[in-house]
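Researcher: Re-running this chain for the archive, since the previous output was lost when a drive failed. Same request as before.
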Amino acid sequence: MCNPMSPPHVTNKHANTSENSSIVQHGSHSSYLHTKHESFWRAWNEDEQMFRTVKDVVTSSGSMIVVSNRLPFVLKRLEDGRLIRKASAGGLVTAVAPVVINGNGLWVGWPGIHLEDPNEPIPESEPGDITPTAGLKSDKVIAVHVDPDVFDSYYNGCCNGTFWPLFHSMPDRATFKLTDWKDYVTVNKEFAECTLTALRSLKKTKDTPQHEVPLIWVHDYQLMLAASWIRQNAEEEEIPCKLGFFLHIPFPPWDIFRLLPWGDEILQGMLNCDMVGFHITDYCLNFVDCCQRYLGCRVDRKNLLVEQGGRSVRVRPLPIGIPFERFVELAEKAPKVFSGEHKIVLGVDRLDYTKGLVHRLLAFEKLLQDHPEHRGQVSMMQVAVPSRTDVKEYQELKETLEQLIGRINGKFTTPNWSPIRYIYGQVSQDELAGYYRDAFVGMVTPLRDGMNLVAKEFVACQIDSPPGVLIVSPFAGAGETMHEALICNPYEIAGAAEVIHRALTMPEDERILRMNYLRRREKVNDVNFWTKSFLSAMGSLFKPEDHDDVGSIMMPAVTLDDFDEYLAKYIGDSHKLALLLDYDGTLAPIAPHPDLAVMPTETKNILQRLSNISDVYIAIVSGRNVNNVKEMVGIEGITYAGNHGLEILHSDGTKFVHPMPAECQEKVSALLAKLQEQVCREGAWVENKGALLTFHFREVPVHLREDLAQQARILVEEAGFHVGKAHCAIEAKPPVEWNKGRTSIYILRTAFGVDWSERIRIIYVGDDVTDEDAMMALKGMAATFRVTTSNIIKTSAERRLPSTDSVLTLLKWIERHFSKRTPNEINPTSYRRGSLAKAITKNVQMECDMSMLPKTVSQKSSAANSREHSDNE
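Model: Regenerated structure tokens:
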């Protein structure tokens, strides 16, 4: 629709032209891909085969599954009831669809309409279809069907109401509704399940070689959680695959991202991919920073790596391009749009608050005020493509924009000239190419944007000589890569007006030089180059031995130096250290059976040496019974807490046992019998720990686990016990308010007195959900570490460690640190077990008095029922 305020002036056809001889020819020159940091400069010569073809990349890795919010086409229902495909515009479809088609891949996405019958078949392409998706057969498409209300909440609520403004650094516009978030989770799970269906179908395909590993490429902010369930289920079903993710919008800095209530889940969802791609390096660094500060992950900023669940996740800047040659062809064929009587400053944007349209108009108004010589000589053409027209905020933006245009036009219009021409509506690419080609200035000044392809389209269509000038915002990804453009801060109205003035008065030779460099780079770094770059980077993950520098794609093992930064200053040169350690999954690797979880000899030896250091106090806090954990560790002179602290054996031989209800032991025996009778089958078994029971189902076939686990939960609850969730295990805990958090506080107070928090430094290390109780109780008073070998773990720990080997390294660091200081004259063992310890032990045994504990640990931890952990914790 064209606004009647000031319709665009259209004149004669423009004759087809080729590249002007004054423009440097592309075939004989090198172009450059330049990002912000010098380490990411990359020279490119078109005669060299630096990248394999897309088909070669896919063939080397296996078939590809593309997962996006929408399919590469949308379905439309005709009046006769038939479904037909309607082509989707965009470079992503143009570049990726051939990869899926040629690589025998699949595409997963929403079909664009809600079908009453989800089983209604997807139609084939219409005869004569020449769009990029014409060869995508219906059996290569998996449509995701979601309840319309749920989809609306997911898309309009969470995606566009929360993530869109927040990721564009406009938190005041973001809404945080729990119902929208829950629907976002639901839809992502549905996309994940459909992707798994696609993955299983590839596994069964006879013409797919067994050695090939399928690549799953997930796109954009609508699907940031999907990889979590894809990886989890693929690993359980032993289906190999590689996961890649690309975010098409900005990734915000830490101080913005931390506002998101569900940031933990979002980061972990993205980290379940093997590689995460962003447009520019700044977004990569923001992501890496958030992973370290929000999740406590180990990161490598130089090589852009994040360690998660024992894996190295690669983070890469991959600026997307456009189908450059297609826009050149459109520009050559498009009729002449502007007469040339006036210079045109062109803006083409979706009507969205991130695009800075109001700021742009105010800058143009300021230009006309400060530089009256441009009146009657320059006009602005603003194309505003309708977006979210049913949302009040967007309706108000449209109204504000049109009122401002009316005011400016009313202020400056003369009988022969109008300063602003405005189109509100869709404009075809054919017509748009003419606008791009004939405009003197292309103005791309969003307040925040992931990349903004309009800047690249403008450059591609600048085929005439002398060319025009591109103005870009530094807050768009394009501003980080298109350095020959004029940079304009849209927030500074007066400064923006001066940039427009400079563009309008720029000498011809400077315009040619700047545009030549821009065109050369964008021609090479087109959308096909982007696709090849992503797949090539993923390809090196399939064959890391082919990579020149393995260190650039793999996090190095944890070293002693890793702990210097945040432990040396904390512990200092004089403080005593209380070291509280879990056993299974922390000191000893997880094993199929508890009896097989043996602590490595080196770990035991260093623990023995640490126990002899007067300034180091050690306590092992485990889910095993106290006698068993002492037997497994086998070190005298340290404290052991068993059954999550229900029984504690102090180093001096005194023992604490938490009071139990009188009938508890009888109930334990009865529950044990029921569990053995009703659910101990298919490899499941029950471990009797005395005060509690653990039902293990690790050896049960995957498809039977959930059913058996649910039966066990019901039996535990019916018997009056608390249910504890473990990894491949269910715990039956006695109905008492005691956990590792309370246990830790009790141990520390018993050993160091009521003012323990002022006298010592504390390190707590665990791998289990029950360790979360301790990490929350000690928050702000201890350095806490969670050993995370699983991909989906939410934790209160300050830092994550990838394995039990890294715990050994931590112990070595502690030994090295204390070897450098002179031992204190007072040995903490002299006051660990005095009358205070006996008095407190007696008090707790007789009265279970919780007044001795801080309020923070008297509260239940909500973590206990929501996170995975190891068998015996």
